[in-house]
UniProtKB/TrEMBL annotation:
<keyword id="KW-0645">Protease</keyword>
<keyword id="KW-0378">Hydrolase</keyword>
<feature type="transmembrane region" description="Helical">
    <location>
        <begin position="184"/>
        <end position="205"/>
    </location>
</feature>
<feature type="transmembrane region" description="Helical">
    <location>
        <begin position="45"/>
        <end position="67"/>
    </location>
</feature>
<dbReference type="InterPro" id="IPR052348">
    <property type="entry name" value="Metallopeptidase_M50B"/>
</dbReference>
<dbReference type="GO" id="GO:0008237">
    <property type="term" value="F:metallopeptidase activity"/>
</dbReference>
<feature type="transmembrane region" description="Helical">
    <location>
        <begin position="153"/>
        <end position="172"/>
    </location>
</feature>
<keyword id="KW-0472">Membrane</keyword>
<feature type="transmembrane region" description="Helical">
    <location>
        <begin position="120"/>
        <end position="147"/>
    </location>
</feature>
<keyword id="KW-0482">Metalloprotease</keyword>
<keyword id="KW-0812">Transmembrane</keyword>
<protein>
    <submittedName>
        <fullName>Metalloprotease</fullName>
    </submittedName>
</protein>
<keyword id="KW-1133">Transmembrane helix</keyword>
<feature type="transmembrane region" description="Helical">
    <location>
        <begin position="15"/>
        <end position="33"/>
    </location>
</feature>
<feature type="transmembrane region" description="Helical">
    <location>
        <begin position="87"/>
        <end position="108"/>
    </location>
</feature>
Length: 207
């Protein structure tokens, strides 16, 4: 990928889109995990869940998109995140229906690039989430109280984001990785989706 410093900067519009996507995704995951509290207007539970989501969804989502941006810039491209407000609305509505469709936006990049470079840019996001799940895991295993909940939700969220984004569908990262290298796609797709499904349906929720 070359060497040298990567000059990462953000426009006001990009920072606004990051913030809007962060909050909307946190709302969606709050609803998904605590629909009974929402229906029962249990405000303290919802506030706590929203705080947990901000810390875990926020870190997972922001670093996922930043990974795309940094690698794109590393390849000499101009890259900027744009939120998809229609998809953010769908994320919240889908959470109310009992599932999550989280495609909050994308890092758009301009400049000449190869299929390999595009594949690596796409791969950076899900791989970052897998790494973050490993970072949160010690908190999930050994911490108690609020920090233990942060750790558990951090593992769940990041494994979900990795698995979901590796699906070879539409604008998701998996399709770009598959178009670049089928072996790399399978090597990342299989464990990401398996762990993502386990995180959402087999992991013991601590809330």
């Amino acid at each position: 990928m070359g060497s040298g410093d990567v000059n990462v900067s953000f426009s006001i519009r990009e920072l606004f889109d990051f913030a809007a996507a962060w909050v909307a995704l946190s709302v969606a995951f709050t609803i998904f995990f605590q629909r009974p509290a929402l229906l029962g207007f249990d405000v303290p539970v919802l506030v706590r869940m929203f705080a947990l989501s901000l810390l875990t969804v926020g870190v997972g989502f922001l670093l996922h998109e930043l990974a795309h941006k940094v690698i794109a810039i590393k390849f000499g491209k101009v890259a900027e995140f744009r939120a998809d407000y229609g998809m953010l609305f769908i994320a919240i509505v889908s959470a109310m229906a009992g599932f999550i469709f989280a495609a909050p936006g994308a890092v758009y990049h301009r400049g000449r690039s190869t299929i390999r470079q595009n594949g690596l840019i796409a791969l950076a996001g899900p791989v970052t989430n897998l790494g973050l799940a490993a970072v949160f895991l010690p908190l999930a295993l050994f911490a108690g109280g609020f920090f233990g909940q942060v750790g558990s939700l951090g593992v769940i969220i990041n494994l979900f984001l990795a698995g979901f984004n590796m699906l070879p569908f539409g604008p998701l990262d998996g399709k770009t990785v598959l178009n670049w290298n089928k072996v790399v796609f399978v090597a990342v797709f299989v464990p990401s989706v398996a762990l993502g499904v386990y995180a959402m349906f087999g992991f013991s929720f601590p809330f």
